[in-house]
Each structure stands twice: as structure tokens, then as C-alpha cells.
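Technical annex B. To support the medicinal chemistry partners, we prepared a structural model of the target in complex with NAP, based solely on the information shown next.
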Amino acid sequence: MDIAHFTGLDENPLLAGLRLTRTPEPAIMVIFGASGDLTQRKLMPALYNLTREGLLPAQFVVVGVARTEMDDTAFRAKMHAAVVEHSRSGDPTPIVWESFANRLFYLPLKTYDDTPSYDALSARLAELDTRFGVGGNRLFYLSTPPSVAGEIIDGLDHARLANTSNGWRRIIVEKPFGYDIDSSRALNGQLLRVFSEDEVFRIDHYLGKETVQNLLVLRFANAIFEPIWNHRYVDHVQITVAEQVGVEERGGYYDGAGALRDIIQNHGLQLLSLTAMEPPIDFDARQVRDEKLKVLLSVRMPGPVEAARQTVRGQYTAGIIGGAPAPGYGEEPGVKPASTTETYVAMQLELETWRWAGVPFYLRTGKRLPKRATEIAIEFRSPPLILFPTASLGSVRPNLLVINIQPDEGVSIRFEAKVPGQTMWMRPVYMDFRYGATFAEQQPEAYERLILDALLGDATLFTRADEVEAQWQIIQPILDGWQHAPPPEGYPAGSWGPARADAFIEAGRRRWRRL
Ligand SMILES: NC(=O)c1ccc[n+]([C@@H]2O[C@H](COP(=O)([O-])OP(=O)(O)OC[C@H]3O[C@@H](n4cnc5c(N)ncnc54)[C@H](OP(=O)(O)O)[C@@H]3O)[C@@H](O)[C@H]2O)c1
């Protein structure tokens, strides 16, 4: 059928059919750590918006679990306040909220390793399952600090809640996935003793972002980019995750982690794999993740000494951001005053593949930078021969393709254009696509997409055990090398990072983009 003349989803029977197929089966979702920040800021608003858009079945039940004492009524009130404050759709519509809240429950645990608490949970789930006609499916969400993940997995195992004799079982695990290669292997071991790999959904919320998925569409649903997406045409790639904020209330956690673990180990390397991967033979979880894994395995990893040399560490000092004074990292609440944790990291990676040999991939991330921006910038080679008089070339710059991930999602291409007039003067111009300007639809939050995918059993946008391990194999030598390297260099809050980061990229005759 020719669908070109259909304009909207409602008129388009094929697309309407697709939407229907994305309604998951009935299930109970159990959120551990439901008294916490993530549940309020992300999970509840996402679940409410999925309900509002009719994407969840009527027999969908949510049970919050944590140590904090609360009853169902108090939990519902807390979650209502959370949705009011954080939902992209504003204040909840009363009728939708009522229907959602009627299927929202809370169960306090004594401690996360208290086995009778899991027996009580099992009994409560059985009762709710019968009351709402759920049919046995369970999605567990670990929204707790990683230190208790093992206890929860053991508790589920003890109460036979991971048993699949009746309906499916799935578990979503939040980042950070381990603290280093050994702890990540240990966590995978704990999970895979009780669940099978296809039941484990390791979340990296960057993969739920529309623009990140659009990177795959840009590359694999268009014919013009792929032929030039390789070392013959690409000079280098810059992946930037810049944050304007400092550590906020997460000082205690962040001080034990740092920028390399917090951003590069997961988001940075996931963006790298999506940018560099080969076309998968199919858009399904196995094929997409196989191709992403190959990218990670192709990263040339030197020993710790050289690995440390291929990176730059920084830590912000007091400065000015957005016209206001900002404290130095050591003065932040929860941070040890003499801490040597990095709040900035820049690094160069090389992929040993036919497609990318010789093309540097630069990754950088930092806190208290002048602006919040996440982007992937692909800079192309200069033309082999310049035909125009050198006098006109003052501003000639190589072509650039930028995928903006946040905050202004879109794609832009830079190319040279002639400035109108009698002289052959040229300057770079931009062709811009902005999501917000082109599509009237509000973009779903990453967590909406990812929770729905997990309920549907689609793991394409989640990280597989071997991917996580390959990510740590890249990061671990750097962590080891840093043990014997000088401490991070200071950079004033509000600047683009330590001076050495500039010298680092300039040594390869390139420059960081000024965003
Ligand atoms: N918040 C975010 O924006 C965000 C973003 C990305 C990833 N994450 C990840 O998501 C998970 C949850 O994040 P969150 O910000 O919601 O964490 P959180 O507020 O610190 O913790 C969630 C809940 O876990 C329980 N808890 C906290 N510390 C504990 C401890 N030491 N031992 C046992 N239980 C403890 C608390 O509930 P009870 O005391 O009531 O048991 C708390 O309400 C973490 O793994 C985090 O790294 C969070």
C-alpha cells in the first residue's frame, strides 16, 4: 500500500497498527528504592505519562518498595507531588491520575537483606495479581544505590520471585554498573545466577533519548551519509558531554566515582559505539548490540602508563558561571576537601577497524563548564585541492556534521558558501534541522521509552553484559594508570576545562569545538 499520502498517525492504518503493537502485556512493576530521588524525578513521571498516552494496559500495577515507613496513601500523595513537579506534561489530569493511583501501592522492607520482607512482598504481589487479573508478569526495577543490588537479587531469589513458571520476569538495573571491572563482573555474576541475560535490562538513559535513536536513523535510513562515514572522508570525531552544574546534592556519590566512571564509561562509550558501528543486519536487540560490541572490542587499549598519557584530568576550582560565583569542587558538600577526583576528562581513542583506522575519536566531559551541551561532531577532511585564490580562503573550514543530543536536539551540517558580491569570498554556513521546529509532537522522556521497551521485552536500547565488560576493559587501564599519574589539573568553574586539554588535542593538529 502506498502510505505516502497519509499525513497523521490516526489516518495512517499502518502506523496506527504499529502503535497498537507497542502496548505491553499486563504486569506488576516493582520499584526498589521507591522513596528515592530517581523514582520521583524520572520513574513516576514516566509511568504517569505512559498511562496518560494510553500506552499501558489497564491491568498494570506499580508497587514501590523501600525501607522508609509509608502506607499506600502516603506513597500516592508523595508520587502525586513528584509528578506535579517533574512531569513534562504539567499537572496530572485528575481522571488519569485517579486511574493510575488506584494501581499504585507501597510496601516497606525492614532491610534489603531481610528475607521475611521478600516473603511479604511475594504475598502482596500474589494478592494484587489476583485482584487486578495481571497474569503473573513481573518487572523489577533496582532504583537503589548499587551497594544493595546483590541483597535485592538474593531476596528475589529467596522468595522465588525470579521464578518464571508463571509469566515473564525482567529486571532493570540502574547505572553505575559496577565501580571497576571486578565489581561489574561480580554484579553480572549475581544477576545471571538468578536471571537469564535476556531478562536483564541494564539501563543507560542516553540510549532512550530521541536524538540518540535518530543517529541510527540518520546513518541507516539515508543513503548519503554512509559512503562518507569512514577514514577516507572523516578527519576526526569529537564527542562532548558538557555540564554546567557542579555535583549538586550528589557530592558523596560523585567523589567516589568521578567523570570517567560517571559519564565516559557508560554514556560516552555508548555514543562512540553508535557513531562508529557497522550497519546491523537487522534492527533487533541481538544484531544492534553485536555491532556496538565490535566497536568497543576494536578500541586499541595500551597499558596503564600510556592509557593515562592518552587522557587529561581536571578538577574545577572556584569561578563564575552564568554571572554567579561558584565554589571549587573541594568546597562542595559531601566532597573531601583534598579530593583528587576528576570532574573533567578528555581522551583520545583509536579504533582498529578498516572503517576507522587512523581516525581519532576525542571524548570529553566535564562539570561546571560554560554551557550544558551533549553532541557528536564529525569533522571531515579538507578538499584535496583548493581551486580558489588564497586571498578568499581566510575562513575556509572543513565540513562538519553535528548531532546535537541536548539541550537543542537536532542535526546541523557546516559547509562553505560564497559570500554574495564581486569577489570570490567564502565563509562557512550551516544547514540546521531542529527537532522542536520540525515536529509538533512533544518528545517522550528517555525513561518513558526505556520502561515501555522493558515491558515489551525489547532490549535493543539496553546494554548487554558483554558490552558493559568491554566498556570496563577500556576504562580500567586508565584508572590503573591514574594511580601513578599527577593529580587532576585545576580549571576555573565557567571555563572549558584545564589548559592541558587544549595542548592535548592541539598536539594532533586539531582543536576542541567551542560550543
Ligand atoms: N537520581 C538520578 O537522577 C539518577 C540518574 C541516573 C542514575 N541513577 C541511579 O539510580 C539509582 C537510584 O538513584 P536515586 O538518586 O534515587 O538514589 P537515592 O535517592 O540515593 O536512593 C534511593 C533509595 O534507596 C535507599 N537507599 C539509599 N541509600 C541506601 C543505602 N546506603 N543502603 C540501602 N538503601 C539505601 C533509600 O530508600 P530507603 O532508605 O527508604 O530504603 C533511597 O530512598 C542509583 O543507582 C543511581 O546511581 C540516578
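Notes passed to the chemistry partners:
The chain has two domains: 13-174, 207-382+444-452+465-506.
Confidence is low (pLDDT under 50) at residues 1-20.
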